[in-house]
């Protein structure tokens, strides 16, 4: 098959960019090969413009334009494209010589592109402008260099995450998903799905975790001191329910004679808060629960189901498990893990401190050495902690509309060029800009549809309304029949 000639280089070029006059309309994101001086250079179309030398902007009369079109037709129009040079085709090594004017430019052939995009071990999808070319990503680099999956709601983040999870399971990996909306527990993957009920044993909790849930501010010094004392006491008295032991201890302190009225107030305040804590979290506190990290299973998707807990509790669970995981990994006591955090902007917010944020940031910085990867998933990138985000070397960015979100993402990722940024608002569902070390080149990708079922897809609300209306109508009919029968019996 003869190569598909896209056009010819024109004007001045450097080693980064070249303009071409195209023979047909190229697509933004389409790959091209430029041949000159014994080099074959890979390039990507970043911008396409079309115009006419004769029908210029200086023309001010519609009649004149009509006359020229009648005489010339569309023949005199030109298509110009700006291409970014990516590297030598074989090595992707740096381009050292700018292409000369007149050098031929071809559409990159599938074989060349496959060599570049098929080198990973998890299939993500296909190139948007070359659907015949599959895109694979490198699982090692994805896990050790972390990943951010960012897009507006409904753009396809959870679908993408599911494709990645499935790929990891095929490789025997250990994905752990913190599932804020119970989306993954019921899904069907290539491996086993283990749902971990988020039970916490107060004995294994750090004091800071307990304080957060008991809702005592660290500036409430006196209450804080009593809670800390009660906690220390309960830990050294191993028997019985920990909360009971703490309450009994505080009761004893309260009845002591040496306390002032203010101190008594504080002690009873702590006791009330401990009782509230027990009532509020009764179902998820379990004094016999094993450490969650012990329950993680390699080769299975581990789903920490946070669908029914509040944000404070989710924060404690996530931070607790991340902390234990990092600790155990340092001692090589658990398998390498890829931790997926849905709604990452809630767990690691930009302008608030949470327990999880601290551990997310620690793993973002240290995880690479120990084989713990983070995947931060968010529909509000600008609310996401910029420190953690900038540690994510890989990114899958789907439709993002708000300029402030786009800017925030660009600041965190030096690889996101202005041209790719400009694409973000026009992407369709499932289309993504893929960046980072997990792929050899940044690419516009159509992510494949996850073949297993996933809860949380777009619901058919109209069908649901219609079903409800139908049910209501049937119910009304039934009632009418019953009343009719009743009256006919009376006649
Ligand atoms: N690559 C894709 N191909 C085809 N359909 C897709 C693709 N990605 C997502 N969809 C569909 O789009 C809908 C929304 O996808 P998804 O739930 O993944 O979005 P999301 O970004 O996670 O949304 P949210 O922010 O609300 O969690 C789903 O019905 C899903 O099946
Ligand atoms: Mg989602």
**For the largest beta sheet, what order do the strands appear in spatially?**
8-7-17-16-15-9-14-13-10-12-11
For this structure, the CATH topology of the largest domain is Rossmann fold
Structural class: alpha/beta
CATH architecture of the largest domain: 3-Layer(aba) Sandwich
Overall mean pLDDT stands at 91
- Coarse shape: globular
- In percent, how much strand structure appears in the residues? 15-25%
CATH superfamily of the largest domain: P-loop containing nucleotide triphosphate hydrolases
Query: What Rg, in angstroms, do the CA atoms define?
Result: 30 Å
Task: Write a brief structural summary.
The chain is of the alpha/beta class. Helix content is 39%, strand content 21%.
Structure notes:
- The protein has 491 residues and is of the alpha/beta class.
- The protein has three domains: 5-108, Beta Barrel (Elongation Factor Tu (Ef-tu), domain 3); 134-199 and 289-447, 3-Layer(aba) Sandwich (Rossmann fold), CATH 3.40.50; 203-281, no CATH class.
- It has 15 helices and 17 strands.
- The strands form two sheets. An eleven-stranded mixed beta sheet has the order 8-7-17-16-15-9-14-13-10-12-11. A six-stranded antiparallel β-barrel has the order 1-2-5-4-3-6.
- Helix 5 (207-214) packs antiparallel against helix 9, helix 7 (242-255) runs antiparallel to helix 8 and helix 9 (311-330) runs parallel beside helix 11.
- The radius of gyration is 30 Å and the shape is globular.
- The structure holds adenosine-5'-triphosphate and magnesium ion (MG).
- Adenosine-5'-triphosphate binds next to helix 4.
- Adenosine-5'-triphosphate is lined by residues 151, 153-159, 379, 429-430, 447, 449, 456-458.
